[in-house]
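Quick one:
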Amino acid sequence: MTVETNGVIHDIGYQRYTGPRLGRAYAVRSLYSHGLRTAFGLGRSAKAKVFPWIVVGLITLVAAVITAIRSQTGEVVVSYWEFPEGISLLVILFCAVVAPELVSRDLRGGVLPLYFSRPLTRWDYALAKYAALVSAVFLLLAGPQLLMFVGAAFSVEGMSAVWHEFGDFARGLSVTGVYAVTFAALAIVVASLAGRRAVAAALIVALFLVTTPIFGVLMGIAYSGSETGELTGQSLKLSQLAGLVSPMTLVSGVGRWWFATDNSVGPYGPLYGLVALAIVVVCVLLLLLRYRKVAR
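Output:
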């Protein structure tokens, strides 16, 4: 009995990779830059660009109006460090849309095992996504503030006045940094818990906005015991501590502790700073724990 073999070995050109292996640091940088581009819809469809750039346009428009009023009247309508507080709702909406784009899509698409293959680690992934959201929020606020600074620099006279204006601008950037790291930490950890972007966005908005009425109730209680409108004793203490219950008023309280002259947070400024720092640390730790267990 004879067996005929007609098999043929084909050389289809597979070769070993002999180029440079860029390693873990390059992978982290790439993930960060991709996340930052995703936040503003760059490199994606026109639909993905609509909302983030509408928010950018609205905040820039507010800054332009403030700059125009100052150039015409010479009065500072809103200081740099107060600017983020005035448009904080837009920042929350931005975080609610961008954070799910950064992490919820990967959860729902089941692509995390591909990311977690070497050399990228789970913590690298989580921290790169968080850093991308922090940078996006910071740029969202710092860009319009830069516009305000440029407009103000051409409105004042003398280099000393410009230098003083730059000092005010630097204060604004410092408060902007607090907003960025705090809002991003809260938004990214909530988004990492939901695979559906709509659900994640709703949870993020709820986290920020549900606590705001509590602040209003506490302030109402504080003023209810005052007939003249001036707070004293326990009512004053309650009003100074009320801002701790909401992320929006918490971060605003940090800015007031640093730069305000009305003493609205009283002697509790350091407490505002410690609570904000604790929130960021806890949220980052929860984020790392989340990605330690996910996709195993």
